[in-house]
# Entry
Amino acid sequence: MRTVSVVSNRWSLLGRLVLALVCSWSPFAASAAARAADQDTILVLGDSLSAAYGIAPQAGWVSLLAARLAADPATRSRKVLNASISGETTSGGLARFAPLLERHRPGLVLIELGANDALRGLPIAEIRANLTRLIEQSRAAGARVLLIGIEIPVNYGPQYRNTLRTVYRDLAAQFNVPLVPFLLEGVAMDEKLMQDDGLHPRAEAQPRILGNVWPVLGPMLVKKG
# Structure
């Protein structure tokens, strides 16, 4: 009986080893490896300013970013996914964010939201809360974050405008994430670079917009180790 028990134990151990080998080559394991490779994905979650509103999609700053990365051997493995929608608010972005994270597993998330909330005069506390949750969800999914700030026209009053500006600065400090203070710096006040609505930049402005983002984003794309 002892001999049978020893042999049985040996077969049990062998079975566990075989099972481990099978699992290591299973579709699930392959899927996990593929998901890890998706860390090269850059997800842009924004509104019309990032969705190339009123211009050809390929002329938008996000498309220009993708082209710039593809042209450089050091960054050509990066994939840029533009999940921006014209008219998007922080609450709208938050509502569709979890499925985007689950599906694409980005290694880096660019959050450019808040302008439409502010143009509607929504409470600053609501904007802050939604941006906070977007950052927290990104972090929980293993993604780094670049926060992109926006400003609104002066007719909204200095108090509201200054408070909105402070939200981006405070969140960047709270979560220790890089910040582009104002996406349209050097663009918004130049009529030649803005469309007739005075809110959306022309195609000619898009390289300058990318120029506002790149000094902060570029260092984040340098692989370490």
In short: The chain is about 50% helix and 10% strand. The radius of gyration is 23 Å. The chain has one domain: 38-220.
